């Protein structure tokens, strides 16, 4: 009982001190999404005696990948001198070609098609997993922003009844938590990961004023 009286006294003091008391609340909402795209990252590394040899090799790989007709991003290769320290000396021997590709597959079985085509090519798998397409994530975020805004207005209406004042939403700030793809260490082969729902959540920090 004493604790309740103390809280009431504290609120009464605040109400007298401020003509427009502020209320800060945190709201959280989430939406479940089913990944529909298989994402696979591949890194190409090749050592050669000349820059032309490295470029020819990466060009050959690029032609193979293009012929598969699998959507991807990347393919912007780099040719660098192969330099390293040996003892106290900095030595450059030949060149190295570096490239990377990120594939987006509607049919996960296309992974086998890709890996079979890359036989004999020096590559590594950098990551793999099922992901939610960006447009679906953006759509879910838009829904959460609007839903949290509606809930904040509902809270303002409830505080109006509690305090017998006119309460309104003064400001809202959002923090997004997007789903992340499953990451893997760099390997040559990998099993196809299972598909599981991913949640995208969002926090809303709401300031409500009453008068």
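^ structure tokens above, recovered residues below v
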């Amino acid at each position: 009982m004493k604790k309740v009286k103390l809280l009431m006294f504290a609120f009464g003091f605040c109400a007298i001190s401020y003509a427009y008391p502020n209320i800060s609340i945190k709201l959280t909402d989430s939406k479940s999404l089913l990944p529909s795209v298989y994402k696979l990252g591949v890194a190409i590394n090749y050592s050669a005696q000349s820059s032309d040899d490295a470029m020819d090799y990466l060009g050959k790989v690029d032609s193979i990948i293009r012929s598969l007709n699998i959507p991807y991003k990347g393919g912007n290769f780099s040719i660098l001198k192969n330099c390293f320290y040996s003892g106290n000396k900095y030595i450059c021997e030949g060149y190295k070609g570096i490239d990377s590709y990120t594939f987006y597959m509607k049919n996960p079985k296309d992974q086998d098609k890709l890996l079979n085509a890359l036989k004999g090519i020096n590559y590594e798998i950098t990551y793999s997993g099922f992901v939610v397409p960006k447009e679906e994530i953006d759509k879910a975020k838009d829904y959460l922003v609007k839903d949290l805004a509606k809930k904040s207005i509902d809270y303002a209406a409830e505080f109006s009844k509690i305090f017998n004042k006119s309460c309104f939403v003064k400001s809202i700030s959002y923090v997004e938590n997007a789903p992340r793809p499953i990451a893997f260490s760099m390997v040559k082969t990998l099993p196809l990961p299972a598909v599981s729902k991913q949640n995208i959540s969002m926090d809303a920090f709401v300031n409500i004023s009453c008068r």
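Residues 48 and 169 are 64 Å apart (CA to CA).
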